[in-house]
Amino acid sequence: MELTNYLYLAVILFALGATTVLLRRNAIVVFMGIELMLNATNLALVTFARMHGDITGQVLAFFVMVVAAAEVVVGLAIIVTIFRARRSASVDDANLLKS
Amino acid sequence: MTVSGGETVLFWVIAPLMVIAASGLLVVRRAVHAAVCVVFVMISLAVLYVAQEAPFLGAVQVVVYTGAVMMLFLFVLMLVGVDSADSLTETIRGQRWIGLLLGLGLAVVLCGVVASATFRQPVGLAEANAVTNPVALARVLMEHYVVAMEVVGILLVTAALAGLVLTHRRRLGAKPSQKALAEAKVAELPTGRTLTPLPAPGVYAQHNAMDAPALDPEGRPIEKSVSRVLRIRGQERSATELLTAEETLVRRELERPDDPVPSVGPASGTDGDGGGAR
Does the predicted interface ipTM exceed a cut of 0.95? Predict the structure, then answer.
């Protein structure tokens, strides 16, 4: 098996995450799509580290994980705040700036 | 470096399952089911990391993603309401097809990039991992990425503070005292509020569960003796049905005088227990 198969898997997962962000309305599910995209990137980074015999790719994946954890905290806090104010977690309902 | 046969089998077993679980994110209606799909994808990714000579990242993946991040997701789902199903009405016409087309296009373009790129012969991490994977990672991290580590630490502290500040709710009025609460309850008496606890559910000869209403002195069922949730769900039992069932049972027993009564033993002779219980 070629190592590029891992890259194809990462690409498919990334595309599925992006499609989730485009299609779903529930803000939490949209957020899960973003997490899926970050995970797919990590898989590609780990595969690249193995291809080149250089462990720096894994260090980069590690940093992505840490930043993703911070991002989740802030994002979910924003979702909770919006839900408290508008009683809805749908991304369609947050249209305060619409004329 | 060559990929072992075991890893090939592992990949071809796990990868299709991961793709199926990830597509579940697109079709599943409830957010909780989507969360379960994502948890499956993340655990499978941890397995793939371990297979790809990154055991430390595999452990971190399980601890950070499935342990912390997805639990946080489930907590927020609990706050927002588990039942909040997605509305499928389109606010932008044709958004579904445009989104699917864009996602498919992204997959095709990225696959094309991977297919057209030339990769050199894979090296493998046997040499880099000679001092075990976590030690090798720590060396790179502490030699070349110390500043980045510090910045990420600051980022984490900032994010924790942001989470606190964003979800903090300032109290607008004074905290109500016990006296004020009692007065408010009494003031609500004319609107039908009761001061005493609600009546307990009914106890019947054959039935004493939460869903049976109690009877008032005139034999009418008391509505408030059954939990509001059960009433709204329509899972309340009707008192007349329970009473009719009991009556028919008693009548059937009385109409068979020649049958030996099963509950009274032949040795006891007296009808103290058996007769009294009925």
Answer: no
